[in-house]
Amino acid sequence: MSVLQYLLEGSPGSFPITPDSFADVKILLIEDEPELTSVIVRSLERERFVVEVARDHATAVRKTADHQYDLILLDIMLPGGNGLDVLQGLKADGRSANVIIISAKDSLDDKLTGLDLGADDYLTKPFHIAELNARVRSVLRRKALGGSEALVAGNLVLDPVGRTAAVGGQPMALHRKEFDMLTYFLLNKGRLVSRGSLAEHVWGDHADDGDNLDFVYAQIKNLRKRLKQAGASVEVKAVYGIGYKLVEA
Prior knowledge:
With 249 residues, this protein is an alpha/beta fold. It has helices at residues 3-8, 34-46, 57-66, 83-92, 108-116, 129-144, 176-187, 195-203, 214-230, and strands at residues 26-30, 50-54, 71-74, 77-78, 81-82, 98-103, 121-124, 151-153, 156-159, 164-167, 170-171, 193-194, 234-239, 243-248.
């Protein structure tokens, strides 16, 4: 099974997690802010991706010309030039690349230009690292599926765009937070999800409002009940003292 197949199918045990599991998924981070670069690299490497860095326009042009990457994280404002020029160069050369633009520039023109040049997504700074990781996996999964956004596990099918879920073809009713949690679990199917990362992804800045994460336990309990009542062939397993994992029952 290839790594992209694992990202798509990834049932427990079907692709063993080792330090080299994602050795063939190569990401180029084009970013000049040292602190942000360090945080992103550490986070992606924990996800077992191989990460290279370009800190200026000239290095970005050289690396994208010399190497093929599975995904490129691209800042717009770079020392020596504009990141959109790098994207333009890829398009002019007829080379396909999964590209997520990460930029403090939030103008509509920049977004439209980036998307017109072939970018797959646009994330405005500041952002949560958990959201970046989820978008990286989403872009890779979407490409592997030929453009489909559907997330599938057993008899459960979830559409993040349409915000619908179905079990065995029958609609499954979910509250907003339950849907967001299930989406995050499906993006990390078969992988351990810590309570902290789950809270950050679903509740964002408000995750720090409580003294503990009791609200996560409550929502997990509700989600488990809904999955069981719907007859889903997946369940949320607790990993004592660490977090949770979505597995096929």
